[in-house]
Amino acid sequence: MLQASETLEVDKSDKTIQTDMSVFEQLESEVRSYCRSFPTIFTKAKGYKLWDTQGNEFIDFFAGAGALNYGHNDPHIKQKLLDYIADDGIVHSLDMATSAKERFLERFHEVILKPRGLDYKVMFPGPTGTNTVESALKLARKITGRETVISFTNAFHGMTLGSLSITGNSFKRHGAGVPLNHSVSMPFDNYFDDELDSVTLLERYLEDKGSGLDLPAAIILETVQGEGGINVARFEWLKRIEEVCRRFDILLIIDDVQVGCGRTGPFFSFEPAGIEPDIVCLSKSIGAYGLPLALTLIKPQYDKWAPGEHNGTFRGHNLAFIAATEALRYWETDEFAKETQRKGEKVHQFLKQLVEKYPQLRGEVRGRGLMQGLAVEVEGLADQICKAAFKRGLIMETSGPDSEVVKVMPPLIIDDEGLEKGLSILEKSIQEAIKNL
Amino acid sequence: MLQASETLEVDKSDKTIQTDMSVFEQLESEVRSYCRSFPTIFTKAKGYKLWDTQGNEFIDFFAGAGALNYGHNDPHIKQKLLDYIADDGIVHSLDMATSAKERFLERFHEVILKPRGLDYKVMFPGPTGTNTVESALKLARKITGRETVISFTNAFHGMTLGSLSITGNSFKRHGAGVPLNHSVSMPFDNYFDDELDSVTLLERYLEDKGSGLDLPAAIILETVQGEGGINVARFEWLKRIEEVCRRFDILLIIDDVQVGCGRTGPFFSFEPAGIEPDIVCLSKSIGAYGLPLALTLIKPQYDKWAPGEHNGTFRGHNLAFIAATEALRYWETDEFAKETQRKGEKVHQFLKQLVEKYPQLRGEVRGRGLMQGLAVEVEGLADQICKAAFKRGLIMETSGPDSEVVKVMPPLIIDDEGLEKGLSILEKSIQEAIKNL
Amino acid sequence: MLQASETLEVDKSDKTIQTDMSVFEQLESEVRSYCRSFPTIFTKAKGYKLWDTQGNEFIDFFAGAGALNYGHNDPHIKQKLLDYIADDGIVHSLDMATSAKERFLERFHEVILKPRGLDYKVMFPGPTGTNTVESALKLARKITGRETVISFTNAFHGMTLGSLSITGNSFKRHGAGVPLNHSVSMPFDNYFDDELDSVTLLERYLEDKGSGLDLPAAIILETVQGEGGINVARFEWLKRIEEVCRRFDILLIIDDVQVGCGRTGPFFSFEPAGIEPDIVCLSKSIGAYGLPLALTLIKPQYDKWAPGEHNGTFRGHNLAFIAATEALRYWETDEFAKETQRKGEKVHQFLKQLVEKYPQLRGEVRGRGLMQGLAVEVEGLADQICKAAFKRGLIMETSGPDSEVVKVMPPLIIDDEGLEKGLSILEKSIQEAIKNL
Amino acid sequence: MLQASETLEVDKSDKTIQTDMSVFEQLESEVRSYCRSFPTIFTKAKGYKLWDTQGNEFIDFFAGAGALNYGHNDPHIKQKLLDYIADDGIVHSLDMATSAKERFLERFHEVILKPRGLDYKVMFPGPTGTNTVESALKLARKITGRETVISFTNAFHGMTLGSLSITGNSFKRHGAGVPLNHSVSMPFDNYFDDELDSVTLLERYLEDKGSGLDLPAAIILETVQGEGGINVARFEWLKRIEEVCRRFDILLIIDDVQVGCGRTGPFFSFEPAGIEPDIVCLSKSIGAYGLPLALTLIKPQYDKWAPGEHNGTFRGHNLAFIAATEALRYWETDEFAKETQRKGEKVHQFLKQLVEKYPQLRGEVRGRGLMQGLAVEVEGLADQICKAAFKRGLIMETSGPDSEVVKVMPPLIIDDEGLEKGLSILEKSIQEAIKNL
């Protein structure tokens, strides 16, 4: 097994990237962000690699924030897309029936739902993560006739008003410009380490008629909080949350936008917990090729929508259906999930060694599958590490309320060579960053 | 000029379409809607035509609800997409800089903004109409420190919580499951025919410290309300609304999602009114090929976003940038706008003749450019007409609070032959529908 | 009949009142207001007169903002209070049954409700105007299961959060510190003079499924808006509002807190309009002697409260019951109402003459019964008039969104001599105030 | 010291009270509540005793829910009231200056604030508890520019919309008919017994930028929760809450409406904790004789009201000023506070003996000063005890989310004889109630 820094060659490159970004500075809004962390102009991409206009190569440990689980421009999907476009397959169809959509529905049922014993109706909201979350909230409120939704500390569910109201980050919340209501933020698993059992607290609130908590329509959660700092909920905790939902007749919504589609190994992140959410939100990698798509999965008994009660122009993005259908091949056997777990474990162990080797980091390793994080308690250090990594050709970002967690989130299809190369750059970047402490 | 029914051959086909829709019925959510109005499975499309799996051909008077102004699968755009994909151009990039995005920004500035003397920073929110509206609302509230937004009767701005709160339709609003607040719905132009001057009413509310209207952050409007029933605001009214905004220091947001990108002739629907909105929302046809994309245009002095204060995974949809850039070619001269106006006028006159010829319709013609509507006062009749049209191979939908308006909204690139053929089918469909009155 | 200024002697006094207000300045909050307009320390009062610590006498054209319709310290009520207290009658009893409350309920039924053919259950909320309004809103929302309440421009209903949300005044609204929601402010009668028929606008909003107006739980209004500037709704308008309520199954709430208890002549202000509100809010003069009391009258079919669903500590203020019961004597015949109307008409004519005589006022007379107002279009002039009046021994206040209306609102029991004396001072004050124009 | 049941004679009376309550049943709203628990008609009261129309005598262990700390109809206050009324002292004066108010302000400063080293400006909101709370919330939001207010589980702050939003009880909250927002309910002290340190949890939420808790304007609390079940906050907990407020620049509001004015011994309930709230809410016993009055005490630096920004008709209830001023005599020495503590301790010990003696109660004793509670874990038993007590001539009520706590809350002026008699009846009532278990 790979040992931190010992078996890897040092990447000496330390390229200085100096690109003319003036078009973006002059014409694009100040809201742009990632182009500030990765100040170059990308032009091509393949698998786990990207290239900029100056020919520099980058390893991708970011994977489009979870939208590129199958890597950039997967060759099989690519071919399907080229064929479909060349053949004038219908591209835009609102929510009309198309053969591309029919095929996707069939295959998704056959490859994903049926083998897992899951019975969900598939809804196509607008093709972004926040749209699926908004549709889930609306449905849960409609079904129960209640307004309140419980989310958790450090949750991230999206940037439109409904999703933002159940998102924890104060900077993002403040952007709403109106008070965010109809939601209650309860402590996520391990929020207090071992001091507080957050499910028991939640139960106490629900049992107590004087707690001030109005009976909620739904509880929504990410099994691993990505933006919130790679906080992993224990399976036992998830199970108990599900029991609370059943006991109090509350809908359970799992937001698998970032952590689904195999990011933690299994297709759905909640599978190993043995729970069955009432509604599941999918987006990001479901579009397979970086193409916008979102799904809301609904237990049949809760599919109480009136026709058109939620809609949107780009629900029927047929290129995404083509890509998504092809990507389902990865799920025909267990192989893909197992490989992800193997690689995830490799990263996890590597990060653990780094923590021991570099005590200056005051580090902690968190994660499940190929969603791993290195929490660094020194203020600003995580950003320094990512900055140093970029100069060495590695794309990584931070997460957590204080940007304190370095995220290791490569495309799942990355090979061991790529993984090791990336991890090696990570170690070099740490070495550089802690020099300045 | 085309006379209603006289110069056109009657389409006798009246195809009976019987398609097996069971996959959709079994696997897709009840929320699906257009596939109920157009119960067949589409598979190919080109220009203003679609074909289903049984080889039936349809004329498109719907244009993806305004997302296909350039028609289906425009050959030039298609070629650019094929080349880009074949060449492994980067597809997904969040909001990182890419050469495809750079080119789009430059061209959009050069072809659209500069010649019109407009100075806007370009923001890429999530790639749907509701996402650009949500971003506009957030920004307006941030800049002004106020919460209230004024929208208008029969406005439609989207289905996520912020956009829904400024949408008029009660069925859609009810879907929210929570009260919709921070918004005030004022009467749109001509809401009362000539009885009420709605700008004067608005001014009275704003002047009167006791009116109960809190000073708003913004006024948002569509210059032609599509979903609301093809309600056309007069240029003079728009000009006066802009004056009210200036006088009371309120931001003016134009939602050009459906009616922009040339639908009424000029690129922006507000150009002939001589107004300069502070924020403009674009989506639908900006992606050119039916590809999800949205833009929020912001006057530089209001581009007060902090980096990342609004974000989303699919902001950087490079295929859409490629398509959008290529589509800008249509705007290098005035020709396209003029043609749209000519064809729009042709439709308008045709519809007027229909209204005269078929008084049973109790009809009224509304519209601007190629966004034309035939309001039919007989309950349920508009739906009957569209149903009959579909059987004859014409795709049309209704709008308005009671689905009382038949929308004529073909791709802008439709030729006269297609237009006439479609209008002829429309007349036949009317004849059939009124038979049952 | 009294002619403005001609038959009245001029009050030459122009006392200079200089009182040591330091205790209030040092110990009381900056929120105090009337003590700034009337900067002296009052100590005794009787009928329509007050005296300060320096022995100055004042005529009261303010009547405790409508709380002293029966004047200060009515001798019959006084005696009843003295007897009750001396006899150790129970004073505080929450909502327990007491003989004082029993007697009040019986007499209120007998003297007020029964002869008017009204059938209301009596609820005692907390003893202030805003508490009765809050209870009415809660009940209307409970009964209908809807949230929205329609109020009108320039309405004033109270200062707690629910009442404030249906109040028009922006200064007062702003004080809430949170956005005020679940309410829509429609134009009051004559808001646009004759240009806009506000009932028709309201109906249009309610009929139109796309208007953006959610079906309301209730419409709440004052038949004459006191704080809003003595705006008088026509009986025909009230009748039509009632019809709208019936047609759309909306509850009609009349806030008679200021304008009830005979202020306009009849006990309830809405009697001459021939309407029957579903809920009526009473406070101010119902306590008769300036004692805190409030009533919420509820049609029996809407009395759907669960026991204790709304409560409060001072619901059972027995001194107020004693006073209120005694005051009902005024209502045993029609005499009191007629006298009020006669005096009201006298004031009205006098004000009209003033308007003609002093065109510099750019004045308009508004009012019904003994709630009369002189709207003065010159900025700040109304305040100047009241200030000058105070120096001459007359207590009057302004109302309206810009404090532009001088209110003439004496105790109903004022005699002609007092009335004439007060009006004469008013004219002198006007003469003084317009000198400085 | 008194031993449970041993030294007390048994009251054998067990009167059967059968009163004609038909007037209330026919004419008063269903919302009435206490008259159902105590189904008789009261007519006189003195000290700690009440009498009904049939001459039955009752001992008062309820004290007007805390409004009668000085007992019913205190003879000294009574004389002052009789003199003032007889002398035609001004009764109603809105917020004008009066000599009665001046005297109260001076004496309150002299007797209460100054000796305690407290520096507060006095505001007079509407004369009920909920009005003072609403004014406190408004002010805190105005000063900080923030919306959120933190309250605690099982808090009770009032029944108008603002106060209700920070009240825990779900039955009462539900009555609002609209979602209650801008508030967060955190766990009160000992909410989890020793498992959860609620201040640490609160701090974690405030420190964590991702917690989903928006920085609040204020924290509001009762030091002993009356309606919530006699939950006593430890002084140490209160001290830490104050520290959290200081650290995060949050205003601390103490709602001393029920528990102030000596109920726990000292005038303010928070004195022994050594904290200095920024705003204090007072009502109930401040009016001394059961007369409606409320005060909002504000640190001078936070007295940022504009004149009239909060108002109300009955702010200047001069009878209440007369009564309140006279009652301040009780506070000229320490005697009153000490006596209350002595009697409170007596009750506390007695209740503890009851708990031991009657294990069937599964009882727990809670309380501070003369606010004592016997929590009874057997469902419905607390109500049975109070019912039995009433039949024996003792007025007591329950509190807590499940009405599980028997409250012992006599007037503070009760003598030992009355206290012992009441406690003896309580024991008898327990004996009767548990017979049926």
Write a structural description:
Four copies of one chain form a homotetramer. Chain A has 437 residues and is an alpha/beta fold. Chain A has 14 helices and 18 strands. Helix content of chain A is 35%, strand content 16%. The first copy, chain A, has helices at residues 22-27, 34-37, 63-66, 75-86, 99-113, 129-144, 161-164, 170-174, 198-207, 235-248, 318-327, 335-357, 381-391, 416-435, and strands at 42-46, 49-52, 57-60, 121-123, 149-152, 183-186, 191-194, 218-221, 224-225, 231-232, 251-255, 279-282, 295-298, 363-368, 371-376, 394-395, 398-399, 405-408. Chain A folds into two domains: 1-38 and 335-406, Aspartate Aminotransferase, domain 1 (Alpha-Beta Complex); 76-331, Type I PLP-dependent aspartate aminotransferase-like (Major domain) (Aspartate Aminotransferase, domain 2, 3-Layer(aba) Sandwich). In chain A, the strands form four sheets. In chain A, strands 4-13-12-11-8-5-6 form a seven-stranded mixed β-sheet. Chains A and B meet through helix 1, helix 2, strand 1, helix 3 and helix 4 of A and helix 1, helix 2, strand 1, helix 3 and helix 4 of B. Strand 1 of chain C pairs parallel with strand 4 (97-98) of chain D. Chains A, B, C, D: GO terms for molecular function: diaminobutyrate-2-oxoglutarate transaminase activity; diaminobutyrate-pyruvate transaminase activity; pyridoxal phosphate binding. Chains A, B, C, D: Its cofactor is pyridoxal 5'-phosphate. Chains A, B, C, D: Catalyzes reversively the conversion of L-aspartate beta-semialdehyde (ASA) to L-2,4-diaminobutyrate (DABA) by transamination with L-glutamate.
